[in-house]
Amino acid sequence: MEIQKELDFKGLRLELLQADIDKEDFPRERFRAILRIKNVSETKKKISIKEDSTKYISRKYGLEYAYQIIPYQFARSDGEFITPDSFVDIKIRFDIVKESYSGDRMEIELRDLAMIPLFYLDNQWYWSTNEIEYFGSQTELRQEITREEKKLLKKQLKSKIEHFESIDEKFGLSLQNFSFEITNWNTLQIFCEVLTLNGETPKEDFNVELAIYDSDNDIVRLENISKDGDDFKGFEIFEFGPIELDFPIDEISKIRIYPTR
């Protein structure tokens, strides 16, 4: 089991600040977990914790579902937005549990995203990274995207384009005017003008390769367009996609485009 104190998840950072008796909840003094959710992406994120699925599994008290989510708007079905580089502290109350014992487990459901477990070991709570139950991710990612959000994402993506003019020149080509069409939060098309240098058409066939990298700098998608040198007349717009990713577009770290044989 892979465990850690903080969890980075789909552009969010999750941290359990407290898990103990809530003295402010007088006279009940119910057990509470305070969860900090920070938006570490570059676009706003909608968050909702599903109250009737979030639960505590105690070695002493058994299974108990969450009694209350505070602030309440983060328990509503439509949730609440968190803007980039901001956070919210959410209190989750349980009615029966009074204290934690080694081996206890909490499961927090982020609506339409995943069920994320925590384990209590050696007097500490840890996120279990390899036991996350993903579901509904495509529903969340395919949510309608606003015009303003598209505009911001396109600007961000342009800054993440990397191409190498020295390589272009070896092929007698120039790759330029990169642009994007965004369908939803995980689907995009990428366009690139390809033209010859000095008006000379390539004498050989060539390819234009595209590589997309995630936030861990791993290559998650490769695209390729091949062109017969005899058919290339000196200028053409290459279109890559639609490209559907299994994570939000704003988590792309870089896009590399380059010619090859």
Question: What does this 3D model show about the protein?
Answer:
The protein is mainly β and 261 residues long. It is built from 3 helices and 21 strands. The protein has helices at residues 137-141, 147-159, 165-170, and strands at 3-4, 6-9, 12-21, 31-39, 45-47, 55-58, 62-65, 68-70, 80-82, 87-94, 105-110, 114-121, 124-128, 133-134, 161-162, 173-184, 187-196, 206-213, 219-227, 235-244, 254-260. The strands form 5 sheets. Strands 1, 6, 7, 11, 12, 13 and 14 form a 7-stranded antiparallel β-sheet that branches. A 5-stranded antiparallel β-sheet has the order 2-3-4-10-8, with no helix packed on it. The longest helix is centred in the middle third of the chain and has 13 residues, at 147-159. It starts with a strand and ends with a strand.
Short description:
The protein has 261 residues and is mainly β. Helix content is 9%, strand content 49%.
Order of helices and strands: EEEEEEEEEEEEEEHHEHEEEEEE
* Residue share in helix: under 10%
| Count of individual beta strands | 21
Task: Please outline the major beta sheet.
Answer: 7 strands, antiparallel
General shape: elongated
Keywords, separated by commas or semicolons:
3 helices; 49% strand; mainly beta; 261 residues; 5-stranded antiparallel sheet; 7-stranded antiparallel sheet
Helices and strands in order:
Layout: E1 3-4, E2 6-9, E3 12-21, E4 31-39, E5 45-47, E6 55-58, E7 62-65, E8 68-70, E9 80-82, E10 87-94, E11 105-110, E12 114-121, E13 124-128, E14 133-134, H1 137-141, H2 147-159, E15 161-162, H3 165-170, E16 173-184, E17 187-196, E18 206-213, E19 219-227, E20 235-244, E21 254-260
Parallel strand pairs: 15-21
Antiparallel strand pairs: 1-13, 2-3, 3-4, 4-10, 5-9, 6-7, 6-11, 8-10, 11-12, 12-13, 12-14, 16-17, 17-20, 18-19, 18-21
